[in-house]
Amino acid sequence: MAKDFTTRKQNYSEWYNELVTRADLAENASVRGCMVIKPYGYAIWETMQQTLDKMFKDTGHVNAYFPLFIPKSFLSKEAAHVEGFAKECAVVTHYRLKNSPDGKGIVVDPDAKLEEELVVRPTSETIIWNTYKNWIQSYRDLPLLINQWANVVRWEMRTRLFLRTAEFLWQEGHTAHATTDEAIEETKRMLDVYADFAENWLAVPVIKGVKTANERFAGALDTYCIEALMQDGKALQAGTSHFLGQNFAKAFDVKFTNKSGVQEYVWATSWGVSTRLMGALVMAHSDDDGLVLPPKLAPIQVVIVPIYKNDEQLEAINRFVAPIKNALQKLNIRTKYDNANNQKPGWKFSEYEFKGVPIRIAIGPRDMENNQVEIARRDTKTKNTVHVEGIEMYVSELLQQMQQSIFEKALEFRNQSTHYVDTWDDFVKTLDTKPGFVYAHWDGTPETEQKIKEETKATIRCIPLDSKPETGTCIKTGKPSMQRVVFARAY
Amino acid sequence: MAKDFTTRKQNYSEWYNELVTRADLAENASVRGCMVIKPYGYAIWETMQQTLDKMFKDTGHVNAYFPLFIPKSFLSKEAAHVEGFAKECAVVTHYRLKNSPDGKGIVVDPDAKLEEELVVRPTSETIIWNTYKNWIQSYRDLPLLINQWANVVRWEMRTRLFLRTAEFLWQEGHTAHATTDEAIEETKRMLDVYADFAENWLAVPVIKGVKTANERFAGALDTYCIEALMQDGKALQAGTSHFLGQNFAKAFDVKFTNKSGVQEYVWATSWGVSTRLMGALVMAHSDDDGLVLPPKLAPIQVVIVPIYKNDEQLEAINRFVAPIKNALQKLNIRTKYDNANNQKPGWKFSEYEFKGVPIRIAIGPRDMENNQVEIARRDTKTKNTVHVEGIEMYVSELLQQMQQSIFEKALEFRNQSTHYVDTWDDFVKTLDTKPGFVYAHWDGTPETEQKIKEETKATIRCIPLDSKPETGTCIKTGKPSMQRVVFARAY
């Protein structure tokens, strides 16, 4: 167990905060609610970005960039959108500072007041659909499949590193289509991309589903989502894909001439994932010794640590390591040889363990004699002595195995933490004693959903896409229900 | 010549604006001074980003992310910085909107006023050095070599797409060092990276130099720059690298313990290039028929256009093209086969010409018979008939040749537009009749520089790094001078 490090059992929330800062992922900035993403954390985010970006391009999307600022009046053009979104925003009211008349520091220049205030984008539907109006005239201009990588700001009152910050980084896809079917297909396609990424890169199993009306994105007709389970049994929404119908097209008057020459409103989708995924990654796999990173996302996949008593031994190990490192890098394995002499091997072991480096290779004089090395897995803490011959293939296969095994461990945890209940008493007891996903019947009304939330703090995470019709009665009202939905307490 | 398209001679400025919007690079946003970077323009920017990012990483840098917002008080901590930078900024004063009491739209909630106003970053030295304070204790923490890709905002009054916009995208490197020598070395290293990128990717020759005190970055001891020449004879600053001395370390109290155990202030650099490079790219090479893109940055490097009279012919061409396209893509040549049947070949020819696609391959029935294709170069407008056998190698070599030839053309233009003058009359006349770089003697005082600027609108672009000492007399004051500096009117 890492020194002075809170365990998950002691205080899960504290464990998370300490882990994120001590593993050099991120820290709180001097600006309220904002974070600094540190190089080690940012390196993980970069891999996420590159991977997702390729997946978006492979599904026909291109990138573009829209302004940071949105005129205040835009936000109120789509009625549901303004209700849900417009409120907790950073507002720019002035465009100039000046020297303070008292000679101390600077003040806002009262003469430089904007005619219309600008809102720092909390999401970009409004500014983008205002732009699409000029880009779309004919069915030939459709579909328009655009993604943006950007920062957004939502003035959250209670913030937590990665999970909920005033400013965060994300991507937002905004597509325009000629038909409702195409738009729905796109919405689902991007949900599948997110699920694929979550499971095969983050190694986090997710439930694909659709949100209830209460939990829907402001302005959407349907919000699809992927829901993940964290180790404390709380759910985390890891990505959303919205079918927006014609709401934004109508609000911004975006019409196209169809093949028959008739003017129609355009159909829209939007979809996004954010630096919140970093929080999911940390919470899903890490342990009381620090980070556990799935190999595909680890900035350093293999660290090699020399064990030596004097310079002569070190030099011999350096020579021994060179071809090993070379062979690993030829297979595109991100490898670091740490032969810095200002720290002892023990310190290095726990440092790289804390940072979640998947594989550690230790090499001492005796290993060299036997032409072997010691290989330690971060996830299971198991060690193996391995012959140097063909080590790069061994490591490469081990990394793939670990990626799979980290996913399976999370999946097993989720299976163990998934419960089916049929009565209110069971529901409440399960939430309190066996946190996780609870599949239960619900009468389908927002009122019942709201009541359940108020009494238990559990929300409907989604109506799962893969669930089979099943008759039953609502756990709260006893009214008939045709399908179970997934409840959980959530981040 | 493209239809209804202003020529460079008619109106260079108008030509540029039309080109940027009609070639789908960018357009003015509905927010004053901001731009929308359209997918085609953004694809070029992405290649620039990826290339620079690799160059930064190859020189030991890592990426991180710092907050968008800077507390107002931070900006006044470094005296010179506040003078030069703090004024024309977007200022966030409130964090909430609410429904308007009259029921129409939304208003800023007066109860949600920030205690301290936040400035949208115009550059991040202050927030970053405030963070570095906690990251640097010992010489072991140095050097700290960090880069950030971000959006920044400067409330410019006169804006032009890419060249000067209220919001723009850029990268900013911020490094911390134990010694002044190391910091200066870093400043120059990054200048070299920028020059390498400008010449070998943008195909734009640049002068490397150092700015005079008047033109220095606010807070720097020295500002190094690369200066490029546009086709209208005006200079454009394409990148800067600043040696900041200990100014920001002192302002934010960033000290380290050196090897002797003594506390010292840290030495700093910062360096950046922005979407302004897009403007340089367009202005340096394009012509009256549209964009000319150096192949390395072209989103589409080769377009293949079929010439056919009926479906049967088109199908035959499709089959003929498939292996050619495949062979090109195997060499990582970005290839598009445009067999859309809603536009005629002539329309496609001028469309891809306007968008600066370097190579166009046209294929008709007779070409197929002869097993050949017609290859047209965008830059020189020359055409060649080429046998299909080994065409991928031909194209690959041609792309390399074109990259080189576009650079050489720009270099020749710069050489022709570079003048050495020794008298005031010659200086004024040259600026008016033969715009370009003017190498002249200057007495080294800010006063003379300012006078020259007021009388001629020419500024000292830089004191070139490669110039040889040469005695002479200042063109304005006749005082002695030891070196020529480079004057020009500039963007």
Word description of this protein:
The structure is a homodimer of 491-residue chains. Chain A is α+β, with helices and mostly antiparallel strands. Chain A folds into three domains: 12-285, BirA Bifunctional Protein, domain 2 (2-Layer Sandwich); 300-404, Rossmann fold; 418-488, 2-Layer Sandwich (Translation Initiation Factor IF3). Helix content of chain A is 35%, strand content 27%. Chain A contains 14 helices and 27 strands. In chain A, the strands form seven sheets. In chain A, strands 3-9-10-16-13-12-11-24-27-23-22 form an eleven-stranded mixed β-sheet, sandwiched between helices. A five-stranded mixed β-sheet of chain A has the order 18-17-19-20-21, sandwiched between helices. A three-stranded antiparallel β-sheet of chain A has the order 4-8-5. The model of chain A has no long low-confidence stretch (mean pLDDT 96). At the A-B interface, strand 2, helix 2, strand 3, strand 4 and helix 3 of A face strand 2, helix 2, strand 3, strand 4 and helix 3 of B. Strand 5 of chain A pairs antiparallel with strand 5 of chain B, so a sheet runs across the interface.
